[in-house]
Design goal:
about 550 residues, Pectate Lyase C-like, mainly beta, elongated, 13-stranded parallel sheet
Length: about 550
């Protein structure tokens, strides 16, 4: 056995731990702490083997390994790293052999980079907030950077944060028994990116619900990772919650209530998804997204709202509202949405004028869209199909309704009461009671639109192809990212028939540095470019 054995370690001032001799780990038998206003630097290749203790960081730790010389925190029984270090012969490590690493509020800008944390999670650490769970790494009120690390064979959570704006990037979670990341405070979600998941209980990031009082960004944490929120999200009137493309937010029997602003902008390839946490998803599994009275501008673009419609706390007109998406006295931008499998209505618009474009509203138990006392709503190029009641029901409102497909709804295609509707260039087919109780237009179609059953896109030969009205304010692309108006006229519904995609322009000027990537956008100023070529919207091209 060759090792540096320490009965305990307390770092004051500046100290360092290094790989000072080949194949020589540090074996820590007693307490390990870095005191306030102190710095401990751990050099590449250093191995620390720990016995039933926690590493307490009250000052600053800088542990920067590299790809070939990683820093390892592991069990004293881990003979796979530098052999038998405690002289007991062959021993078998287990998750929970030691506690983990605690970053206290005073730990400042600590860094773990190219580190491996193994066999931690023995029991909860000495939490400042009292809110801790068993975790390999516990971060409380501080913002360390944790990058290019591995958390392996750990009991409990991989990383738990509370009131932390940590930067957590490119972390591999391997055999973690509970949540890879547990966020104890919704008002301060860490920067999460590039996470990977292997043999864990789940790929869910558990977030405690609550009130968002300051601006909050939900990053795309990585492939097959989702945010699981365990109670209501309430966005305060002064706050904005933004969500990146590809993020999935899974709600547990709760809802999202927006008094400030919600900016959720996905793409056709990477939509933002709001859905249930349940594996056997069913209508009404969670409440939905509720935009309450607000002057702030919210945006839902390329989003899916699935299996919502549970009973909400919003009480209007003698009942608690029950819908997947609710708008009351606000004007969010709604485009490229999929609202499916609600336990009641898909979308309710109250006392508001909303623009809804390029959206699929289907298989909801109630109305597809219900407008109540709302003036000025415009619904263009939507596919409203297979809802349990009326496709579009209007009560005491005014609506412009153009270029839509309304098919196989349980009552009417469109109905109104004490309302005014401007409707033309729509396709109505097989709505159970009647296609409409409004005056049809000569530009309407009463024929099977030939929809693909999986996503309600158009099939070849559909009668709605080239039959829409180009004069309304249509988007450049359809819900799938295809270029709009591929023939003489725009197609009806959320999808355009054809294969052409919208293009952006890529600058081909010579670069002196490394290759770079440009992501296609819908518009680009050609006047400032020397050369250009086209690239599919949202795809990447290399320029030099």
């Amino acid at each position: 056995m060759q090792a540096v054995v320490l009965e305990g370690f307390v770092s004051r001032g500046y100290n360092f731990l290094s790989n000072w001799a080949a194949n020589t780990p540090y074996v820590i038998l007693g307490s390990f702490s870095v005191q306030k206003n102190s710095t401990l630097e751990i050099f590449p290749g250093t191995v620390l083997k720990l016995k039933d203790i926690e590493v307490d960081i009250f000052g600053t730790v800088i542990a920067r390994g590299n790809e070939s010389n990683k820093i390892v925190f592991t069990s004293i029984k881990d003979d796979s790293v530098l052999g038998d270090s405690n002289g007991d012969g062959v021993s078998v490590p287990a998750s929970g052999d030691w506690l983990g690493i605690l970053f206290a509020p005073s730990s400042g800008n600590s860094v773990l980079e190219h580190c491996i944390v193994k066999y931690a999670g023995g029991k909860p650490m000495s939490s400042v907030t009292g809110d801790n769970k068993t975790s390999a790494i516990l971060i409380e009120g501080s913002s360390p950077t944790i990058r290019n690390c591995e958390i392996v064979n750990c009991k409990g959570n991989g990383i738990q944060t509370f009131a932390s704006g940590s930067w957590i990037e490119s972390i591999s979670f391997i055999n973690v028994t509970e949540w890879p990341v547990y966020v104890g405070d919704l008002s301060c979600v860490p920067y999460l990116s590039g996470l990977s998941n292997q043999n864990n209980l789940s790929g869910l990031i558990r977030v405690r619900g609550g009130v968002v009082n300051t601006n909050l960004l939900l990053k795309n944490p990585g492939f097959n990772f989702s945010y699981y929120v365990d109670s209501d999200i309430v966005i305060n009137d002064s706050a904005t919650m933004s969500i990146e493309p590809g993020v999935a937010v899974r709600m547990k029997s709760s809802g999202i209530y927006v008094y400030g602003a919600l900016i959720a902008i996905g793409s056709s390839e990477q939509p933002v998804i709001f859905t249930t946490d349940e594996s056997d998803a069913k209508p009404g599994s969670w409440i939905g997204v509720y935009f309450m009275k607000s002057q702030r501008k919210s945006v839902l673009n390329n989003c899916s709202i699935l299996y919502a419609g549970g009973l909400s706390s919003v009480y209007l007109e003698g009942a608690n509202r029950q819908t997947a998406l609710f708008v009351n006295e606000s004007s969010p931008v709604l485009q490229n949405l999929k609202i499916l499998n609600s336990n009641d209505a898909g979308l309710e618009i109250w006392n508001s004028g909303v623009v809804l474009v390029n959206s699929v509203i289907a298989k909801n138990s109630g109305h597809g869209v219900f407008v109540f006392k709302g003036n000025g709503s415009r619904i263009y190029n939507c596919t409203i199909v297979g809802n349990g009641k009326t496709g579009l029901a209007i009560n005491q409102g005014t609506v412009s309704f153009v270029n839509n497909i309304i098919v196989s709804n349980g009552l009417y295609g469109v109905s109104k009461s004490n309302s005014f509707i401007t409707n033309h260039h729509n396709c109505y087919f097989k709505n159970s009671y009647d296609n409409y109780d409004v005056q049809p237009a000569s530009s309407d179609i009463n024929a099977d639109p030939r929809l693909n059953g999986s996503d309600f896109s158009l099939m070849q030969g559909s009668p709605v192809i080239d039959r829409g009205d180009n004069s309304i304010n249509i988007l450049d692309v359809d819900i799938s990212g295809k270029k709009r108006v591929q023939g003489d006229s725009v197609d009806m519904g959320a999808y355009e028939w054809g294969t052409d995609v919208q293009v952006g322009f890529v600058d081909l000027m010579i670069k002196a540095s490394d290759d770079s990537e440009y992501v296609g956008e819908s518009t680009k100023d050609l006047a400032i470019q020397t050369k250009s070529t086209s690239v599919a919207l949202g795809s990447k091209a290399v320029f030099y």
